[in-house]
Amino acid sequence: MSQPALVAPLLSKDYLSVLDLSRTELEHVIALAAAMKRDRAAGRMGNQPLAGRHVALLFEKPSLRTRTTFMIAVRELGGDTVELPAGDAFGGREALADVARNLERWVSGVVVRTFGHARLAEFAAAAERLHVINALTDEEHPCQALADMLTLSERWGSLSSRTLTYVGDGNNVALSLAQAGVMLGLHVRVASPPGFALPASVVDACRRAAAPGASLELVADPAEAVDGADAVYTDVWTSMGQEQEASARNAAFGTYQVNEALMARARPGALFMHCLPAHRGQEVTDAVIDSPTSVVFDQAENRLHTQKALVALLMG
Ligand code: CP
Ligand code: NVA
């Protein structure tokens, strides 16, 4: 099957949040990614909408998957990447807005991994022609959610009436997952210890964005949250930038480990998901992450296809 046409560019200049996309746009990104994945597997690399264009990568935190897959995605679309030393651009040498206004004279887009989401929004707002993609902030990880939705649709087709349970920290990954999940019709349950739940404002925004019949529920007890779930997702207890809190977090999250006993509460054959990197033996056991229903490397692979579709639609 050939790729859906790139006729409907995204309305938003930037992709800072899943909520920058309409439901139709989100579905379109996933459908285009699926087609690009099939074409790539068949050796058909498609057209090169980024030919002669550049995309800058600016990472203030470590990355394996996101950096690698954006580099490959841009190159496979015919463009080239430039890696910016984070300290030179975001290190306070000049105003963030001036950095953005310089970059828009040279490159079509910037993929940014940084700390506070507000800084990213300020950067994106400063340059009206520069496309900015959120490669993870403290608050959101919208590119991860695209890959997660493609992974689930490959397994299930339609997502509506399926239940996805996220167990652990109400962090950047949980937020973007909840947004994308409810937009595509999932019942999303999030189980977090007291003090680590998704903020109420996030829950309200998800409920407003939800497809008819979708839901978001916060649950305290992980076993109750996993009961009958079609997929169980977790992430690290201590995210990048929170290393000082690690011992307090290990204590708080001790009963939120995804292990075989917890997975036994889910539907038979329930999928296990993780954005990676995983801390084996903490938030997930080897037996679960290495089990036949674990789709963690499909998620990692799908980072490439979904980001390729996103870049093509945003900048192509
Ligand atoms: N899942 C993810 O974003 O991985 P990296 O931190 O390696 O990019
Ligand atoms: N929540 C994790 C995700 C890493 C991909 C972090 O922010 O470190």
Could you characterize the architecture of this molecule?
There is one protein chain. This protein is of the alpha/beta class. The chain folds into two domains: about 20-140 and about 305-315, Rossmann fold (3-Layer(aba) Sandwich), CATH 3.40.50.1370; about 145-300, Rossmann fold (3-Layer(aba) Sandwich), CATH 3.40.50. The chain is about 40% helix and about 15% strand. It is built from 13 helices and nine strands. The strands form two sheets. It has a five-stranded parallel beta sheet. Strand 5, helix 7 (about 170-185) and strand 6 (about 185-190) form a beta-alpha-beta unit. Helix 2 crosses helix 13 (about 295-315), helix 6 (about 140-155) crosses helix 13 and helix 7 (about 170-185) runs parallel beside helix 8. The radius of gyration is 19 Å and the shape is globular. About 50% of the residues are buried. Bound molecules: phosphoric acid mono(formamide)ester and norvaline. The site of phosphoric acid mono(formamide)ester (CP) has 8 residues, from helix 2.
